[in-house]
Amino acid sequence: MQLGFGPEFDDFRQEVLAFLLEHWPPADGNLRSKEHERTFTLAAIDRGYLHRSVPKRFGGSEQAPDIARAEIIREEFTKARAPSGRIASTGKLVVPTLLEWGTEEQCAYFIEKTLTGEFVWAQGFSEPNAGSDLASLRTKGELLDGQWVINGQKIWSTGAHKATHMFALVRTEPDAKKHDGISYLLIDLRQPGVTIRPLAQMTRQKEFSEVFFDDAKTPADWIVGERGKGWYVTRSTLKHERSGIGGLTWSLSMFRDLVKLARLVDYNGKPAIECPRIREELAAIEGQLMSLTYSTYRATSHIVHDRDTGMFSTMPKLYMTNLAQRISKVARDIVGDGFLDMSGEHLKWIERFMISLSMSIAGGTSNIQRNLIAERSLGLPRDARGAVQ
Amino acid sequence: MQLGFGPEFDDFRQEVLAFLLEHWPPADGNLRSKEHERTFTLAAIDRGYLHRSVPKRFGGSEQAPDIARAEIIREEFTKARAPSGRIASTGKLVVPTLLEWGTEEQCAYFIEKTLTGEFVWAQGFSEPNAGSDLASLRTKGELLDGQWVINGQKIWSTGAHKATHMFALVRTEPDAKKHDGISYLLIDLRQPGVTIRPLAQMTRQKEFSEVFFDDAKTPADWIVGERGKGWYVTRSTLKHERSGIGGLTWSLSMFRDLVKLARLVDYNGKPAIECPRIREELAAIEGQLMSLTYSTYRATSHIVHDRDTGMFSTMPKLYMTNLAQRISKVARDIVGDGFLDMSGEHLKWIERFMISLSMSIAGGTSNIQRNLIAERSLGLPRDARGAVQ
Amino acid sequence: MNFLLSDDQQAFLDAIRPVLNDRCDSQQVHKIFDGDDPYDTALWSHLVAMGIPAIMIDKAHGGLGLQLLDLAIIAELLGEFAAPVPFFGNAIGALAIQLAGSAEQRANWLPLLATGERLATIAFGEGKGRWLPGEWEVPGGNSISGTKVLVPNAAEADLIIVGTRDGLALVERGAGYKTARTDSADRTRRLDIVTFDGTASEMMPGDGATIDRLIDATATLLAADAFGGATRCLERTVDYAKVREQYGQPIGAFQGLKHQLANMALEIEPSRGLYWFAAHAWDDLPDKARHAAAQAKAHCTDVYLQATRDMVEAHGGIGFTWEHDAHIYMKRAMFDWTWLGQPSLHRLRAADLAGW
Amino acid sequence: MNFLLSDDQQAFLDAIRPVLNDRCDSQQVHKIFDGDDPYDTALWSHLVAMGIPAIMIDKAHGGLGLQLLDLAIIAELLGEFAAPVPFFGNAIGALAIQLAGSAEQRANWLPLLATGERLATIAFGEGKGRWLPGEWEVPGGNSISGTKVLVPNAAEADLIIVGTRDGLALVERGAGYKTARTDSADRTRRLDIVTFDGTASEMMPGDGATIDRLIDATATLLAADAFGGATRCLERTVDYAKVREQYGQPIGAFQGLKHQLANMALEIEPSRGLYWFAAHAWDDLPDKARHAAAQAKAHCTDVYLQATRDMVEAHGGIGFTWEHDAHIYMKRAMFDWTWLGQPSLHRLRAADLAGW
Q1: Would you call D292 an interface residue with chain A, using a CB distance cutoff of 8 Å?
Q2: A365: chain D residues, CB-CB within 8 Å
Q3: Exposed site from A23, A263, A308, D304, fewest CB < 10 Å?
Q4: Could you give the 3-state DSSP secondary structure of residue D163?
Q5: How many separate helices (H) and strands (E) can be counted in chain D?
Q6: What DSSP assignment string belongs to C228-276?
Q7: Which chain D residue shows the shortest CA-CA distance from C258?
Q8: Are D169 and D144 in contact (CB under 8 A)?
Q9: What are residue C231's phi and psi, to 5 degrees?
Q10: D96 CB-near residues (< 8 Å, 6+ apart)
Q11: pLDDT tens sequence across B130-141
């Protein structure tokens, strides 16, 4: 058993370090220059460090899947604060979908521009009356003289107000039954038929938008997969396995912040971290965090070695959600009066107290997660009414 | 608003006190004498203090329902440690059932002997394959030449090994559908066709029994209510409203014991009650206990004044179960090493740690309780599959 | 046994509820929450007209001469509607004068407070969780200097009752103090930082025991508001679960959510008896009042804050938006939870008061 | 990255599991649990024959020379089957000699322990939660007097490793000490009170740091047993929920229970990584070992005890009976939770070790 990637990867890590040494930071030290970022990114792609799963002809570096190498690249690029060719997370969803289901033309037209950030994507799945239950989508698309005409409304579309395009599930076959009537369409949001309305959250931030389609148009051939098969197109993109280590870092840093907070702020006259109740609660949270961490390493190792990750695979999201809620409650106890001041030094913790809730909503509520665990990991019977699609 | 029963009841309380002064404890101070208990009980019935809901001709004192008076009697009799004509709790169930559904003959034959403790009752509802779901009972009764012949098995029958009779739900109409095939039969357990097997619990105690019927017999007229209506007969007995104050005393004394334990036992070098974590947890439990206490007084007041008790009526059992579990976990933390010694000074707490679980099972699991709260108090839709009978 | 509201109490509630239904609906609350008005003056003047500021003021001074329980059930009702009015600070301010004021102070102020011609508030907190009399460091006297935080509607108040090391001080508007509005989460009850700097003030004769009574009443009102808010959160969430459909049926038919709502109700409903008892004890069982108030404040405000979280989760995305009412209740819950000190503080006080 | 069991480790497990399936089924465990035999001698001799006592003993002394991780995964397996054998005390006793013994002590005892010709155990606890070296008050020397509690199988052991104020003492059977069997909840691992009274003993040279290593290994084995037991509780409960029918369907189809089982799995499964890490750290990352062991002991034994409670609730009445396996797992969980000190103690240690 070993936690590192082991000697067989040391050479690779050296290569990556050497590459970084040579290319980042830029000579003039200007880390913000778009031009530098672009040059670096192209060099990194050329070396096979970024966009590894994307064919060269679409602007990627076309490497064999290898979580270990990908993870080493992520680690070292992060340490070096080098541009990691990161594209908006929704872009991360559309690229593999296009690669798996798209036509050569679609891939050629969309992927490279997405990688370079020229195209920014919004997801168009949820609707006011279809939250977890995508089968009851109503937004409709009709093929009229060579183009799709789209009418309806999407909601919870992350960053749509900053996006150029949307990949959307649209009902194109009104007569087909629920799942079979849906197609996966690509839509340019920069047209008169599209109205985007950002939704303010309880934290005052605006991450999500409502998107209204009023005879919006999109070319006939901007459909991904067959008509009425949009359902299967989306589901397939959900299965792309990834190392959970990226997600971990978020929980770990939130906990580090909490410990820092507990050291700095007094509670009943001494630093909160010396208050036995809080001290013990911090240790209990750390115990869960360690469980998550090493089970994630274990799962990653399984993927690296092509073994089944077992029960754990359905669990990280709900586990992290519960951890975030637990962490933010301790923070609440520590910040005390600061809990009321939305312009104060503890705003971050007020926001986390609230955002820890949105975690249990976004991308499948916690109850949906529980169904996933119960059905996929424990093999319990599905709800008769199929609360898991 | 007042917490006591108020001046209008002071005279009554004085009467009760005067009665006790005169009759208890007995002159010779022998509190254990069955004879004394009998004399006292008869005098108390004669005064209308015991078995108030039972007509005089069946050995009761035939008083108008009056929770306030009943409660005052309970309080003063308890204080004086006087016999409260308590009959096994299962007897408490059968008497009102007989009064509501039984024939004159049945009442005359069974009730008085039950009140005097000559007949001791066991409940025969649950079966191995019918726990919460009584509709799928299988124990069957056939009317053959003037008597019921009973075959099958009952389980979780409290104190059956000490009982003389059982009131049981038996399937007498094999062709009728689920609920309508069941009758409510009275069975003398002291016959060859009945085998009683006490079940040991994880605490080593034996409270429950399995009861096997192998051509057991009972007279044709020992059926309560009509054939196939046993279902409704039982349900009606569940609705007899009672003051929850009796149940409260159990929770209150468990908490008093916990506080005593926390004062006596050291935890990290000082009395547990001075350990901030435990001290705060005790206070949190007390907050819940006070909520339960005063909501129970509120509910009782509503009953006294004939008003609807509202949402709270479905809640006490689950609330007490949760409290018992929370209390027994703190006790576990305090007793520490004593938690392993089944012959040690803390055995009581080991038992409570386990029994707090059986509370969440006996008489409707906690999930059934949650359905009751959700459906009856909140008006949420019933489970399609009717998880509440 | 008669642990119930009296017919008069019920009648009072029945008279006020329609006013709130008409003038304090969700839309109106959002309007004030998002707007610049410090509170809903129109609604407040209706409530004043119905005698709400007069509830506990002696009849001799033009009040209704009622008890804390009468005030607390109104606090519950206003909490239920998340009413954006200066009820809380004003009620405790008036009670302070009633309990701790000199005959003259009472005669000068109580009549004006009973009619609502004047608005009072209270300055207790000194920051970093210092809320209680024993922790007050601002020195008293006929001129005071120091800073108080999280003072309700100080900018709008005509007088401020200030907790000082030496007792309660009465400071009139215009006596020369600075107020700075805090960007407080709960915009239905605005808060200020108040800086006194040689500000003219009048000490009130009330002793420590009297001030403790005032603190207990404050804790009880916060508990009552919390209970009212929590019950509304439950009601709203249950209603939503009945109408919102997913997978072809109301989400409230899914046992998973159903049991979560049952657990939510199980936490909320029984806490009613606790705040009732705290108010009743304050009125009639003085030796139980301190402990009960501490327990009610701790328990009810904890339950409220969790209830608002449960409400958001059950609503899904919509419950997380600014447009929905959920965040307004959550922020009121944050107010009730924080103001006068968090539950943990009051639990440890309750333990001390229980003689543990 | 290779945070996995090696093929050898997997093979070892695969070799032992069938033995347990055959010889340690529920019926057999109940027989020992209810009977007078202190443990299952037949099963133990099979496990001995498979080399289990030899796992961590140096090859030089006839052992397998493996690591704590190898021992811990066996502890998990035995925990899964609730195996009524003296594995725990014996393994730590042998490790004590291996780590802290003199060359002579190692040469005398390790070969006999490797072959199972001798049985060792450990005496750490002194009652009232005093478990750790700093708390040991029994004085060391070549004759010791004092009392140790909750000692596994002391009556059966050939030697006892006793924690004293001055280090670890080695006491041989027949050296003259009294053992009194405790009526312990977990009858799969019997416990004794041992009274030494001028009992002949041999001190072992191992220093404080060595003894700390031993404590960390002990904590890790308890965590491993707990994880094994918890996974079996989950498996058994899920299986029951699939076959037990109520209202005409498996109870596992009711979302209420389904979500409870999901929550149960969510607590249990991830804790595997924690105890793996604790064992791995002990073997290869010494600076992380103390903290990891404390966390693993605290978290895994807490999770186990709750898992057994969840198991009983999900089973309903049958799960509360003596005939069912649930209570055996609950009582093993009580052992793991209590032995070496309760989770709270180890969390506070972990906090200190984290440098907080």
Answers
A1: yes
A2: none
A3: A308
A4: strand
A5: 12, 9
A6: HHHHHHHHHHHHHHHH-EETTEEGGGSHHHHHHHHHHHHHHTTHHHHHH
A7: D256
A8: yes
A9: -65, -40
A10: D120, D122, D161, D168, D204, D206, D214
A11: 777 777 899 999
Q: Which residues on B lie below 8 Å from A275 (Cβ)?
A: 276
DSSP letters spanning C19-30: HHHHHS-HHHHH
Q: How far is CA D236 from the centre of its chain?
A: 21
Q: What is the pLDDT of residue D278?
A: 97
Note whether A337 contacts C150, CB cutoff 8 Å.
yes
CA distance C328 to chain A (A): 8
Contacts of D9 (CB under 8 A, 6+ apart): D69, D70, D73
Contact D273, A244 (CB under 8 A): no
Minimum CA–CA partner of C253 in chain D: D255
pLDDT band at B246 (very low <50, low <70, confident <90, very high): low
pLDDT tens-digit map of B330-370: 999 999 999 999 999 999 999 999 988 887 776 668 898 99
CA distance C51 to C72: 14
pLDDT score recorded for residue A385? 47
Note whether B214 contacts A: Cβ–Cβ < 8 A. no
B167-189 pLDDT, tens digit each = 999 999 988 877 789 999 999 99
* Cα–Cα distance, D187 to D216 (Å, whole number): 25
Q: What is the pLDDT of residue D11?
A: 96
Judged by a CB distance cut-off of 8 A, whether residue C181 touches chain A is no
Complex ipTM, two decimals?
0.94
Question: Which pTM does this prediction carry?
Answer: 0.93
List the catalytic residue out of B105, B241, B280, B345: B241
Residue with tokens 């990750």: A309
User: By the CB < 8 Å criterion, does C254 face chain D?
Assistant: yes
CB C255 within 8 A of CB D260: no
Are C177 and C148 a contacting pair, CB within 8 Å? no
Q: Which of B208, B341, B365 sits opposite D316 (nearest CB)?
A: B365
Tokens 């038929």 sit on residue: A193
Q: Residue D356 pLDDT more than 50?
A: yes
8 Å CB contact between A177 and A249: no
CB pair distance less than 8 Å for D3 and A283: no
Tell me how close the Cα of A169 comes to any Cα of chain C, in angstroms.
17
The tokens of A77 are what? 């690029």
Q: What are the chain C neighbours of D256 within 8 Å (beta carbons)?
A: 255-256, 258-259
Does the pLDDT value for residue D325 go beyond 70?
yes
pLDDT tens track for A311-340: 999 999 999 999 999 999 999 999 999 999
Q: What pLDDT, on the 0 to 100 scale, is given for residue A323?
A: 95
DSSP calls for C80-112: HTT--SSHHHHHHHHHHHHHH--HHHHHHHHHH
Whether the CB-CB separation of D296 and D304 falls below 8 Å is answered with no
pLDDT above 70 (res C219): yes
Do the Cβ atoms of A337 and C335 come within 8 Å?
no
Chain A interface mutation, best of C233, C246, C255, C335, highest count of A Cβ atoms under 10 Å: C246
- Does residue C108 register a pLDDT over 70? yes
